[in-house]
Amino acid sequence: MSTTRSVLLAAGLTAAAFLSPAFAQEATVIDLTQTGCQFLESEDGQDLGYQPAAKADCEAINAQTADERLAAHAPMHLAPGEYIFRVTNQDVPYMLGFYLRGSGLIDKALLPSVSGGGLHQGVTQDYAITLEPGEYVYSCPLNTTPDYRLIVE
Q1: Distance between CA 134 and CA 108 in Å, rounded?
Q2: Domains located in the chain, CATH noted
Q3: What is the per-residue pLDDT across 60-109, written as a single tens digit (0 to 9) for each?
Q4: Do 135 and 149 contact (CB within 8 A), yes or no?
């Protein structure tokens, strides 16, 4: 990872804060809202009402519910191209993040990824990425959400 990117991530910033105007105009914005232990849009907008006080609460909740929840919701499908994932911490009382990467060992190594933190309650942050064809997953490692599927074709 480059030194500049490391500094940005440590400061809770992403490369989206420094996007060229051309990228920002061409990119499609995908809005994602985090509540306790989930992304609302990834579960058809249904807020399951989880009230975690810490990451461990979500780990316990998702250990029991993630498989069933993921099976009930279709993966997101996108075309290859420029995207900005606009992620909001709606009401989780601790800092969150976002991590989009290839699904599986080979795709994780070959496909582009984006990640970052700094999402305090009420904060929205942009994560820019050029998606290539393949299978991805996205989640929050700090709010421990399920690994939601994203297929780019």
Answers
A1: 10
A2: 3-152 (2.60.40.420)
A3: 999 999 999 999 999 999 999 999 999 999 999 999 999 999 999 899 99
A4: yes
What whole-number distance in Å separates Cα of residue 38 and Cα of residue 107?
A: 23
What is the C-alpha to C-alpha distance for residues 34 and 126, in angstroms, rounded to an integer? 13
Q: Tokens in use for 4?
A: 């500049």
Helix (H) or strand (E) holding 100: strand 96-102
Pair 146, 70: CB distance under 8 Å: yes
C-alpha 31/C-alpha 20 separation (Å) is 20
Question: What is the distance between the alpha carbons of residues 50 and 82, in angstroms, rounded to a whole number?
Answer: 33
| Alpha-carbon gap, residue 147 to 141, rounded angstroms | 9
